[in-house]
Amino acid sequence: MQLGGISEDELGSIENEIELLKGLSHPNIVRYMGTERTEAHLNIFLEYAPGGSLRQQLNENWGPLPQNRAAECTYQILSGLAYLHEKKIFHRDIKGANVLVAANGRLQLTDFGASKEMGHESIVSGLKGTPHWMAPEVIKGQQTVEGWGEADIWSVGCTVIEMLTAQMPWSIYPNPMAAMYHIANGERPQLPKEIEANLPAECKEFIFEKCCNPDVNSRSSVFDLLEHTWILQALESAAMAGAEGSSDWLPGPIDLDKNSRRKSKAERAKRARPFEHPQGQPLGIFGLHAFAINWRRVERFEHPQGFLGPFEHSVPLSFLQLTLFNNNRYHRRHHRSRHNQQQQQ
Question: Which SS3 state, helix, strand or coil, does residue 99 take?
Fold first, then answer.
């Protein structure tokens, strides 16, 4: 976190909130390990979750979840949320991107940047959340301090839709302002007809009546949702199938290697498409010639110096840069050869 523009009082409030989060300990909550403050930044250290986010797994590995798998994942999210609500802490931004997948497959809530403890002022108070997952009363600014718990429940329902579709809720309205307009008008998020037709009545009740209900007073508490029929049936089925832990409930394997940005040379060479520009455009004659000459040194149009920057992103060379790189090598060899000849004479 960059400290520019943040006053000492605001920074103190942020550090106090982080100290609060450091005291949280639950299997379905990412641990906050501590902070380090420098002149320009406040570094926050979190428990490492190599599986990435739930959204990432849905998009890259799993796709839409069967309803029973979605229920098992929802149980883990609710377990972490119940721990927070029991301590009068509201998350205020529950969505697939803020649910991480641990190495053992356990789902963990993270990103408490918008969270709030009841009875305490927060530097992050106000309109918080992500529009497509946001409750109607939050959009209209009508929620009370105690009402953030019901807003979390609405977001849980939206996250269930995200798991069932592998898309964000209100995906028919990619513009956030359009989605917020329909939410504020009291509409419920929709499921594709082909998916909704195959859902049991208990699942639809969970989403549309107990979670994504425009009437705040009709939503269930997180503790009641843990006892909902849809959740209990899924847990019973998992137990009968011999699932012994969260990793047995996962819809599929976790590709941990996708989260590592640095690949071995052999793997990169195996995946490289010969004679293709990194952005997909075909190469011209000179570009092809340059690639053929320099393929040993410039592997798939990567910078000759390899990986650059703190996060080890590879820097691709443009066609012009690659041609110039090849020409510079030629001219250096040419001038070196002429210099040697002159010295010999």
Answer: strand
